[in-house]
């Protein structure tokens, strides 16, 4: 098995007892990166409390710095690490931005760069060069912005010409909701705002578009849906906002799935009363596998009996980023599990459908590809190699399987640095029933200055 230099091989721990744990998770990637971007375009300085500290958040912060914003760490409230203070500045060109493997950075920042004056060069990790970017480039061109690209993907250069007129635009966001979010986030700074229409075969991850609209409205922007696949953002100032970032509910998925796999109980602290995060669907999704959930006093408790996991058929088009965890549970189920509506996850950090099928096969299981999803057959599994493909969610899916299958060898648990660098420590603490707060074990990459 070839491993990149930075890889951290990890034998997924097998559960030896029922789970009884209280977990606190680090901040949401999607909320942190929206808050950073909007703060950089706002009308005054903002502070983010409990921001995510991870590779994707660091990439967003670094990209915004390259475009002129000042972002610095200031003392936070202890266990959650430093806060971030963001001072906006006029968008400047002339730099270059490394998007790593962060979809939010590679889709959101080119539109911000178009507001500036001068060229900004974008590139990313080798696999980032394979992720769909055509709609970012087409949208910029449709807005009259010059983009130099040999092919419709990274690397490319955006030539800001001092502003974007905006108006009306049509895109095809079938491959990613991030194309829509990117345009809506920058649109208050377009001279005429933006009326945006999606025309295409499907629109994945609608909750993430709702999150974008809500983040804009929280900052005084008139942003709304005008139809099933149309949105309007009025031009105007983006108000500065001090915000406490919610825990990442998508990263809650493997921890809650662990209860289904093993039996027992997990209490997740900081569960928001209401949220735009797609992870809010987890209680309902896990109920399909027999879990019971309740929310009280700001915590979510998930309980499950352990033992047999029933088969299920789930359409996850709204929640593709939760699908690797659900497929991992599917491989442990006693009936077939079908997850559909996730064709677009072939364009995520890796081709997730292929990665899951191949990894499950390496453990002796059988999963097959559907036109827009995956079907997992019940059957015995044995230890074997589990490739992370630099994908945090594939790595953590291996962790879920390892709870019941001894000897699941994840080739690089370091892939979790993308959104939850402290994953191995939090996972071990959960299995041992110890409380461990995020920030207690600082991850390899913070969102602060390098
Ligand atoms: O806007 C966002 O923060 C995200 C949108 C979704 O992207 P896709 O629509 O490409 O699935 C999601 O999967 C990704 O993890 C984060
Ligand atoms: C698809 C994901 O990430 P990205 O923001 O890189 O698209 C994800 O986190 O599941």
Automatic annotation (TrEMBL):
What is catalyzed by this enzyme? 3-phosphoshikimate + phosphoenolpyruvate = 5-O-(1-carboxyvinyl)-3-phosphoshikimate + phosphate
Residues reported in the UniProt entry to bind phosphoenolpyruvate:
29, 103, 131, 178, 352, 393, 418
- Which compartments does it reside in? Cytoplasm
Pfam families assigned to the protein according to its UniProt record, in alphabetical order: EPSP_synthase
Q: Which GO terms describe its molecular function?
A: 3-phosphoshikimate 1-carboxyvinyltransferase activity
Q: Which positions are annotated as binding 3-phosphoshikimate?
A: 29-30, 34, 176-178, 205, 321, 348
Domain annotation Enolpyruvate transferase: ranges? 15-425
Q: Which GO biological-process labels does this protein carry?
A: amino acid biosynthetic process; aromatic amino acid family biosynthetic process; chorismate biosynthetic process
Per the record, GO CC terms? cytoplasm
Q: What is its EC number?
A: 2.5.1.19
Q: What class of enzyme is it?
A: transferase
Q: Which UniProt keywords apply?
A: Amino-acid biosynthesis, Aromatic amino acid biosynthesis, Cytoplasm, Transferase
The biological pathway it contributes to is:
Metabolic intermediate biosynthesis; chorismate biosynthesis; chorismate from D-erythrose 4-phosphate and phosphoenolpyruvate: step 6/7
Q: Which CDD domains match?
A: EPSP_synthase
Q: What positions does UniProt annotate as the active site of this protein?
A: 321 (proton acceptor)
Q: NCBIfam families in the record, alphabetically?
A: aroA (TIGR01356)
What does this protein's UniProt record list under function? Catalyzes the transfer of the enolpyruvyl moiety of phosphoenolpyruvate (PEP) to the 5-hydroxyl of shikimate-3-phosphate (S3P) to produce enolpyruvyl shikimate-3-phosphate and inorganic phosphate.
The record's similarity note reads: Belongs to the EPSP synthase family.
Self-association state and partner proteins as the record states: Monomer.
Protein's UniProt name: 3-phosphoshikimate 1-carboxyvinyltransferase
Recorded source organism is: Agrococcus baldri
Upper classification of the source organism reads: Bacteria, Bacillati, Actinomycetota, Actinomycetes, Micrococcales
């Amino acid at each position: 098995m070839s491993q990149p230099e930075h890889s951290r091989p990890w034998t997924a721990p097998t559960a030896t007892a029922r789970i009884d744990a209280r977990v606190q998770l680090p901040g949401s990637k999607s909320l942190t990166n929206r808050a950073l971007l909007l703060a950089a375009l706002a009308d005054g300085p903002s502070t983010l409390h409990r921001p995510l500290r991870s590779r994707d958040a660091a990439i967003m912060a670094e990209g915004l710095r390259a475009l002129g914003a000042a972002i610095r760490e200031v003392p936070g409230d202890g266990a959650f690490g430093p806060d971030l203070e963001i001072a906006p500045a006029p968008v400047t060109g002339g730099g270059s931005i490394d998007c790593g493997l962060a979809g939010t950075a590679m889709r959101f920042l080119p539109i911000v760069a178009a507001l500036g004056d001068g060229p900004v060069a974008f590139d990313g990790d080798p696999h980032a060069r394979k992720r769909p970017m055509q709609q970012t480039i087409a949208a910029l061109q449709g807005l009259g912005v010059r983009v130099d690209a040999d092919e419709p993907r990274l690397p490319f250069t955006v030539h800001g010409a001092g502003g974007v007129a905006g108006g009306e635009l049509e895109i095809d966001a079938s491959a990613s909701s991030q194309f829509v979010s990117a345009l809506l986030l920058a649109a208050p700074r377009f001279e005429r705002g933006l009326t945006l229409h999606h025309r295409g075969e499907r629109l994945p991850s609608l909750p993430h578009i709702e999150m974008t609209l809500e983040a804009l409205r929280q900052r005084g922007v008139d942003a709304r849906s005008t139809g099933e696949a149309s949105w309007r953002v009025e031009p105007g100032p983006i108000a500065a906002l001090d915000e406490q970032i919610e825990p990442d509910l998508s990263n809650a998925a493997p921890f809650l799935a662990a209860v289904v796999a093993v039996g027992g109980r997990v209490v997740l602290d900081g569960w928001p009363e209401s949220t735009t995060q797609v992870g809010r669907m987890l209680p309902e999704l896990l109920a399909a596998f027999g879990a019971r959930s309740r929310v009280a006093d700001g915590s979510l408790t998930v309980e499950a009996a352990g033992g047999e996991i029933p088969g299920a058929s789930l359409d996850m088009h709204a929640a593709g980023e939760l699908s690797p965890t659900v497929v991992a549970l599917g491989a442990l189920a006693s009936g077939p599990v079908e997850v559909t509506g996730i064709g677009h996850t072939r364009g995520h950090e890796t081709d997730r459908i292929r990665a899951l099928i191949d990894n499950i096969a390496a453990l002796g299981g059988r999963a097959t590809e559907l036109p827009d999803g995956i079907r997992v057959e019940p059957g015995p599994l044995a230890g074997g190699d589990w490739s992370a493909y630099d994908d945090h969610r594939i790595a953590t899916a291996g962790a879920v399987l390892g709870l019941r299958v001894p000897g699941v060898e994840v080739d690089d648990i370091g892939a979790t640095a993308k959104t939850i660098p402290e994953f191995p420590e939090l996972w071990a603490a959960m299995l041992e029933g110890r409380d461990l707060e995020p920030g207690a074990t600082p991850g390899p990459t913070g969102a602060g200055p390098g």
